[in-house]
Amino acid sequence: MSECYLCGKSPAEKPLFLKDSFTAHSLAACPWSKKLCARCEFAINTRASYWSQSKQKWSVLYARNWAWLYQGETLLSPVFDGEIDGFPVVKNLATRKEIRDWILNPPSPPFTICIPESGQKHTLFLAKENYSQSLFAVQFETDVVWIEKEKFTRHLECFEQLLGLNATKTEIVSGNYKSQFLLSAIINPEFECLDAAIAALRGKRYLELINHVAQYPEPPPVEEPKP
User: Fold this and answer.
1) What b/e string do you get for 101-131 counting C-beta neighbours within 10 Å, with b at 16 or more?
2) Which residues contact 227 (CB under 8 A, 6 or more apart)?
3) Domain locations in the chain?
4) Verdict on whether the full-model pTM lies above 0.85
């Protein structure tokens, strides 16, 4: 039984065909193999039609552009439905808010989470299959980021609370807060504790993943004036 050239899993029954533009051969798990598994062949070769709501038009996307969520061999996200102009139609591409929920509430094992950053690299074949919802790996571009869910939840909360104090994501990640922000934040007793929790993470891909999925707090609802 053949192993997959890219991910190393078996059975691998698809012929090995990679375009000259594919440059990640050094990351192949089984460089001696001449076969691809069905998942890797699908992820490498798929182009799909996608309806852009913002642009109000159809476009063709490569599979490297979107995030993947698998439960075992079942693809949970994205969803494919129908065909247009010879391309399968891809729907429900995950937003960063939805990806945030994947990490905070992963599906029952086994599951795989793969998140693109640049949209220019094939990375699904690098993603690890997870068997725990409390400690698991997230493939973030070409890096594996290990998640302890309880710690990640606390760190994400600290990051988003700093956003709620009107810090920018760039300021939080770098630690270089603008003086205008500091003048207002320094009087907040929570600021130093929140920043200290983030400071230990700076320079790590873990924090960049938090930054990638963190959401700005929603503004409170506006109360209508009473008659």
Assistant:
1) ebbeebbeeebbbbbbeeeeebbbbbbbbbe
2) none
3) 1-45, 47-148, 150-213
4) yes
